[in-house]
Amino acid sequence: MRASACTQLNPSGRKRTASAALSSVVRLLSWNENASTASSQEVRDMSFISGSLIYMISHISDVAPESWVMRVAPFGTVREEATRKDALRVSRGRALVRITHASVGVTDALAVRGDYLMQPVPRFVPGYDFIGIIEHLGAADHSRLSVGQRVAGILPRMGAHATRISVAQSLLVPVPDSLDPVIAATAPLDAVTAQFALDALDAKSGSVLVQGAGGAVGAWAVQLAAARNLTVFGTASTRTRAVAESFGARVLDYRNPEWIDALRKMTNGGVAGVIDHTGRRDLQRVVMPEGRIVRIAFEGKQGHQRRATAAGFAAATLRRYAHPAERICSTPMLVMLHRFAYRAALGDILDRLDSGTLTPPQPRSYRFTDYRKAVADVTSTPPGEKSVLVMGH
Ligand SMILES: NC(=O)c1ccc[n+]([C@@H]2O[C@H](COP(=O)([O-])OP(=O)(O)OC[C@H]3O[C@@H](n4cnc5c(N)ncnc54)[C@H](OP(=O)(O)O)[C@@H]3O)[C@@H](O)[C@H]2O)c1
After folding, report:
1. How many whole angstroms separate alpha carbon 225 and alpha carbon 202?
2. Class assignment of domain 190-334?
3. pTM to 2 decimal places
4. Which CATH architecture has domain 68-186+362-390?
5. Quick check: CB of 118 below 6 Å from ligand 1?
């Protein structure tokens, strides 16, 4: 693993400091026990020794850091950095997890370029979800976890693009032993978002529309909706149409200006619900009055995405009691507020992946050191693939 410029030690400087400290230790050992006769030179030696030892210890810890993180500072720039040790303290109810895999998605790319509402200030570490191994448990809150166990998690705030994190045990969900960790890493944020969005839709029967049905969240939503015996319509361009259709969606091309009218005709007046990531207002026309629109994101122009999200969020909140009603589904917020439901959803997704009843995207692996490329490639990821960081060991 490379060290960033700000944490790398100059080896010759380290040698000089070490030999000076060593000679001072020898002088100290041969020091006259009668302290009252200590010369000012000897007192200076004492301070030098303690200072040097602190210097060496702190730098030794930098050379073998607890964790490497990818830090955004300033926006648009990512630096590999060693974290401070105290950032990894494992107190009661927390765990030290060595991250082995983490997904990289559209939200990370947004955040890196400064367009993500939930990360408005630089110097953060991107990444919401991870797969890892528990290395240490603070006094346990949950006996279901043990050291050495493979776990998955979604964080309520970004920070998963790191080699180790200290994380609340209540965020950790065991990964089935037989599930490939690279496959598992494709799922947490995207699949749980699809699951939560469907729950918020609350459609018991009939048909639903999934916007971006061939995209990362959309493909999970199509499968999960079909598994609930809902008829699934999806929007996609010709680029991602095949992926959406492979999971059973009846696809309309969102680039065709007539697609909303076409869907109204196909469904005799509208679907029971829509999962949407664009924020477009006219979707109200494709939903039956008693149905719902669940917004998982709001589209905006590059550089104006934060404002678009805030405005979309406010508008959707105001339409909470409209007909059709609108709901906002933010997985990080739900993870923060509803731990039990979050763990149940993620555990269920991992079990269904393990049993083969859900089909994951094809993982597209990147080494942790190729992080910038992984982020840059997000917008051109081939349909049906998901980028996964594979950490070194
Ligand atoms: N709420 C949450 O907790 C949460 C969690 C994860 C992600 N998200 C957000 O959800 C959004 C989607 O994420 P993702 O990872 O699924 O992205 P993605 O993989 O890029 O998928 C988005 C899909 O939307 C389609 N699309 C583009 N423009 C469209 C339009 N005008 N109308 C309908 N469909 C359109 C694209 O289809 P084509 O490629 O065919 O053009 C693309 O496949 C992002 O904004 C992301 O930040 C929210």
Report:
1. 11
2. alpha beta
3. 0.86
4. Alpha-Beta Complex (3.90)
5. no
